[in-house]
Input
Amino acid sequence: MTTTQHDASRVEAYPEHFEPPHGPTWRLVFGPGLVRGVWMAGLFFLLGMLLVAGLRWWWGWDPVWLWDVIWPIAGMVTAPIGFLGGIGAFDYWLYYISGRPTVLEDHSGHGARSWKDYFRVNTDHKVIGIQYLVTTFTFFAIGGLMAMFFRAELAQPGLQFLDSQSFNGLVSAHATLMIFLFIIPAFAGIANFVVPLMLGAPDMAFPRLNALSYWLLPIAGVMFLASFLAPGGSFATGWTGYAPLAEGQPLGQTFFNMGVQWAGASSVMTALNFLVTIITMRAPGMTFWRMPLLVWANFTTSLLVVIATPFIAGSQFFVMFDRIMHTSFFIPEGGGYVLGYQHIFWFYSHPAVYIMMLPGFGIVSEVISSMSRKPIFGYRLMALSLVGILFLGFSVWAHHMFVAGMADWLRVPMMITTLLIAIPTGIKVFSWIATLWRGRIRLTTPMLFALGFVTMFVIGGLSGIYLGSVPIDIAASDTYFIVAHIHYVLFGGSVFTIFAGIYFWFPKMTGRMYDERLGKVHFWLTFVSFNATFFPMHYVGLRGMPRRVFDYDEAFGDLNFVITIASFVLGASFVVFVYNMVQSWVRGPVADANPWRAHSLEWQVSSPPPIFNFDEIPQVVGGPYEYGVPGARHAVMRSGEPREVHV
Amino acid sequence: MRKGTVQLVAIAVVIGVLVTLVAVLFQWLPTSASEEFDRIQDIYWFATIISIGIFSLVAAVVVYSVWKWRVPVDDDADGPPIHGHTGLEIVWTAVPAILVIAIGIASAVVLSENGQAGERPLEVEAVGQQFTWKFVYSDYDDVTSGELVLPVGREARFTMRSVDVIHSFWVPNFGQKQDAVPGIETTILVTPKRTGEFAVICAELCGLGHATMRAKARVVTQSEFDAWVKEQAA
Output
């Protein structure tokens, strides 16, 4: 491969960069990596702590050691920066700023040669994609275990083995981890791996920024989890963290306020990277109208992320300032406006629902088209409906506030825009089933998850129409009906598409094939237990069970017991998935370059792809879904024109 | 193709009947105890009919397609290269648009009806505080009670306040819900139409005791109500 020679010539030209003048122990402690990350995090924590205490001592403020301030500054700002510096996320930039030798085309941090490379700062989008996925599935497991804990508590009315603080804490952390550490970044992981390949690009536009955005993620995750160790327990105000309840909470709430900043920064950086990559790094001939729908989906999602995420960052900063700096953004006694929090929060958090859904739409379009062996039905309208959702998505946030006491006149316009979103969403659903029509349908595991998604998402979308209608929402808001709805959208919707995507691109990512039989067992277990868990929640919610309660009316006891049992089965089904993934990654049969005979570019290179993706420049000559069209090609390789790498 | 259409319709009908049975055999909504909830239930059923139709259609096409056109995984052939159909695309843009706008108009009408206070409603101030409710009857010398007592058939206008964090006043059988927000006043109307005992539930997470923030609502006849007020005032 070209890269090896490439590296060798670089080593010769810049020996001081490739052969550090120190021994292995020195490099372990002082070279970029997790060891340096840990001790630099500790060092920077001390610096932050001394900064706060020193300033307080200087001004004569009492007490000098105010931990409510030291934790957010030292523990949640300086220590993470120290960690990032330690693992080497800033090395290149710091070398550049300080005038030390840097090599623009140094790809020593690119690609993975052993499993250890996955624990380093790596600039290869394929490595980063897998880092994202393994990390996010770890948090998926933790968040799922939390759900099983509080489901066990909910098996009977009354308090069994949790107390109300830990119950509220588990409920809040479950939602927070699933949203910020699983669904949003899992899609970023899949897209990280697939999008540059689909575009015919050698990598993302900003590989070092890409690496940094990944490493912000575990920081956010650890912060959310560490809140359980805080005095007074973890944040316990729901993932929505409404003010003014959040204002008076113990220290744990600050972990939420700051964790969201790190997860949000990660999202924004990745989204910017996707936007620039998609706009500037398309292969010759790859016009916007020839891009696979997954690319369209990530383009629109990235616009949502970049525009909306600063709002949740602001909302959490304001709450934290109220908590520790005595501002009063949301404290009525100080002139604050309580509903302002909800407006700002939902201005992000409603578009966030589409951030968690549009990439899944993209995945399902790829899977259904290639497994039905038919062009995606109505390609242009499919792309335009994503854009329609993007615009409408910003005009519906107040439908979360129909009972909140906001200005009355806002309710009907927000209801109308909310209901209108059903139109582009409906276009997508009808186009998927029209793609199935007269296809040659291969019922593989990714296809099962895609079809499961279509049917479950329709249920979630229809319950969304109930909730869009203001009068019904007034009755159903804040009940288990909402819990049911959100899980049909985010589990039956997003999570099913993530599974579909993982199975679909597993051969491309690992070079091996997953076990089809286990995949089907996983699907059916998940599908049945998912419905058994969440469908009855519509009923208990409408009948009068509010959400976020550890105790409830005895009339709901039996049904809650059934829900709890079903949720344990749902948890167990994940074990089948993990076993299949690990087993197949290690020992699965070697996969072909293109096991699904799909047309898009990622399937035209080896599995796993070469280190810079394309050894020859692809020339795109047609659409990505031309199944059944005689002689149609999406791209041809310009053979004899080896690609020059300028990453 | 004709035979196929019949089969598809048959599948859709079977699914539609099953889903309809699920919708009508279980009592999904609590018994309505207010005129407002009656109107909400009308919208609920309107949305349910539309939902059953759409779900049956989508599920039937998925089931039919998989049953009809499934091939072995190692099959090599492609399907027909159908890229789209402008007529169909217009239909499935226009029909959902008409349906959701119909739901929107019906909802707006109900919302407006449920929000119009008649003449001289019974004024009740509902005060939320971690983790109790307090009801103040300003028409009756600020009689104050931890139990909500309402006369049947008379419209009550709740003015809501909170002394600490956000709470939400909810009586499932009334179908009405409204947050009590510190710093502002919010209102909601309830016209009880049947006597009985119901639960007042806090629906907005308000702290550690949120799950226990409940009160009793009693709808009584006007004469019982008058007697109760007299007793409280004494």
Summary: DSSP finds four helices and ten strands in chain B.
